[in-house]
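Dear Dr. K.,

Following up on our conversation at the group meeting, I've run the structure prediction for Ribosomal RNA small subunit methyltransferase E from Streptomyces natalensis ATCC 27448. I'm pasting the input sequence below exactly as I used it, so you can double-check it against your construct before we proceed with anything downstream. Let me know if the numbering doesn't match what you have in your notebook.
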Amino acid sequence: MTAPVFLAESLADVRPGGTVTLDGPEGRHAVSVRRLRVGEEIVLTDGQGTGVHGTVAGVEGKDRLTVAVVGLRTEAPPAPAITVVQALPKGDRGELAVETMTETGVDAIVPWTAARCVTQWKGERAAKSLAKWRATAREAGKQSRRLRFPEVADPLTTRQVAALLADADFAAVLHEEGSTPLATAELPAEGSIVLVVGPEGGVSPEELAAFAEAGARPYRLGTTVLRTSTAGTAATALLLGRTGRWS
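The predicted structure tokens came back this morning:
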């Protein structure tokens, strides 16, 4: 089994042969939940592409340990970067979508309040829901041993999503009536890919028109219709394979 990953606030001054301290909530999880002991392997990451591999050199109390640094690893920004614009699903299926997309390898997730969304983020609920999505991405990033965690952006309106699509090197709306399979789309080798996943009720004609004007065509994944909470994960996996990022 690979070494567990924990999130560190900063690894800017860490060098092989030195030490780094893990405390706070992450330290408590390492000491009191995972029960790591001296000599066990551990990985720390800043979530921005830098990681430290080392061993536990000391444990203090219930929430603090010292890591002896063995090596450093830096991951370059992915190319092409994959962003999924995720319409708000019902219930806790939003966190499910974020979790599985993160584990698969998505680079950014954008919550979108589509016209046909049953779920609406407003006021205090919006802040709490966004915090849940971000916490889910963070925990899934650690669980899947990522060094670079996906960004979960602030929610966007349809007009803002259209602007995001217009700036992408490849933009697509996942739609069961799309005439072209995503599996055969011409993809860029660099830059950005942005996919739109609609809500349970589907993307409205007005939204499709706005996205088409921004350069995003409708594409289908296959012959079946996926739920909004799984479509982004399936599409991300397909693109990671096609772009060579999974090679």
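Two things stood out to me. Residues 123-143 form the longest helix (21 residues). The helical segments are 24-33, 93-104, 123-143, 158-167, 205-213, 228-242.

Best regards,
J.T.
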